[in-house]
Amino acid sequence: MKIRALIIDDELHAREEMEALLGETGAIDLLGSCGNGIEALQLINRLRPEVLFLDIQMPVIDGFELLNMINQEIMPHVVFVTAYDQYSLKAFEEKTLDYLLKPVDSRRLTLTIDKLRKTIGENRPPNYETEAIRRIPCLLGNRIKLIQLGDIEYISTGPAGVHAVTATDEYFTEVTLKVLEERTALLRCHKQYLINIDSINEIVLLEAGLAKIRTHSGKFIPVSRRYLKIIKKKLLI
């Protein structure tokens, strides 16, 4: 059975070259390719690839930062592709499966494919050292905007997806609520909301153990019974 893969590289010619090389191996089912982190997260969340051929140096979000934004439950194996040998050591420190130096040598790629077959065949899960997310990539028209965590009042999720809300704006992001809860300091206050504790202006207590948070900009966020105690404890009240 072929290995389901994505190529992520900001350079079109590099993606096309890798597509051709992977096609020659006969071992890869190429699900798609893309040139930035937002598109990558969208494809990973939707297609659930088994492996990423991931460029390290990309604008806005580099390869290491992208890994921090992937849900661990669907984390694929990663083969870093880089033109810079100094990144190879960090690639192994991140416990990626392998790395390839550009321009990619077909014989070296064959060794990587063999390693992938063995790892996937033995059902060995990826084991990467993910770090805290410092900023959230959001889509704004045809631009990617990086929102610093300190600027966010809350995160919400619904039928239209996940949105990061600041005092003045609202931005769509492909990073899931689960990942943001696990890898940022944002607190869960409701099944559909995460709150930046520094944005809380007041907590309004309601009937039946419910509450709502008023942010410094005047927005109201629901708080469920399950999370009210946690938030009060965090605020030392």
TrEMBL record:
Short name of one Pfam family: LytTR
Single GO MF annotation: DNA binding
Response regulatory domain boundaries: 4-117
Domain HTH LytTR-type: 136-237
Record key words, sorted: Phosphoprotein
Residues recorded with modification 4-aspartylphosphate: 55
Name used for this protein in its record: Two component transcriptional regulator, LytTR family
Lineage of producing organism: Bacteria, Pseudomonadati, Thermodesulfobacteriota, Desulfobulbia, Desulfobulbales
